[in-house]
Specification:
single chain, alpha+beta, Alpha-Beta Plaits, 2 domains, 4-stranded antiparallel β-sheet
Length: 227
């Protein structure tokens, strides 16, 4: 690995070169962390803005740490400036907070020229994330998408619905059930996992064959962004 301390003593513009290397390394490592988050994500609401934030926050923290350097006065000044900002973002999953801290730690490490620490720490975090994803600690039964529709409140319609769900779905879970039209119709919301080799169009087409069904809305996980 490039010895940055030697580089600083041999070049008049060493601080600029070191800053460039720090920012580039933070960008590369944060991008890998963002890719790890994307590959190990298993929920329905996927946010592209959050993934981009994982990369950008590493660059910001690197710049801040480079600006502070060894100056106590700068550190106090930046802390005072950051205290003015109010962060009101609510995270749905504690795992999202962990990835924010991982990206922040990479940026801080690069900002204080701890390049070996940043590289080892980032790769250790990514390996651990993938191991947990495939381990028994990972979620073994998750859903492909969300299905919403309304149906007449009669036994025949319910039986027809149950036959279709059992035929095409490997697993399904009822999320909400609401009365419509004074109890004459019911509004359903399901999380579903389709069986292998089952097409979404075939599933929705079979649902449409139920005479009393209306308002079918089926959102697959890969098409669900920022619900």
């Amino acid at each position: 690995m490039l010895d940055f301390l030697t580089l600083q003593t041999m070049t008049n513009h060493a601080s600029v070169i070191t800053l460039i290397y720090a920012v580039l390394l933070a960008f590369i490592l944060a991008t890998l962390i963002a890719i790890t988050y994307e590959k190990t994500y298993r929920a329905l609401s996927y946010s592209r803005n959050y993934v981009q934030s994982l990369i950008l926050i590493a660059l910001v923290s690197t710049t801040v740490m480079e600006a502070v350097g060894d100056s106590l006065a700068r550190g106090i000044g930046i802390m005072a400036a950051m205290a003015v900002i109010r962060f009101r973002t609510n995270f749905k999953d504690s795992r999202d907070i962990v990835f924010i801290f991982a990206s922040l730690a990479v940026g801080v490490s690069c900002g204080v020229n701890g390049f070996e620490i940043a590289i080892v720490g980032a790769f250790a975090f990514m390996i651990a994330a993938f191991l947990l994803y495939f381990s028994p600690f990972g979620e073994s039964s998750y859903f492909d998408g969300m299905l919403r529709f309304n149906l007449e409140n009669d036994p025949q319609s319910k039986q027809a619905l149950e036959r279709v769900m059992q035929k095409y779905c490997k697993s399904f879970a009822l999320i909400t059930l609401r009365d419509l039209a004074q109890g004459n119709r019911l509004d359903y919301a399901y999380q579903v996992k389709l069986k292998r080799n089952v097409r979404q169009d075939d599933f929705v087409g079979e649902l449409n064959k139920i005479p009393s069904i209306q308002g079918i809305n089926f959102m697959m996980q890969e098409a669900t962004v920022e619900l």
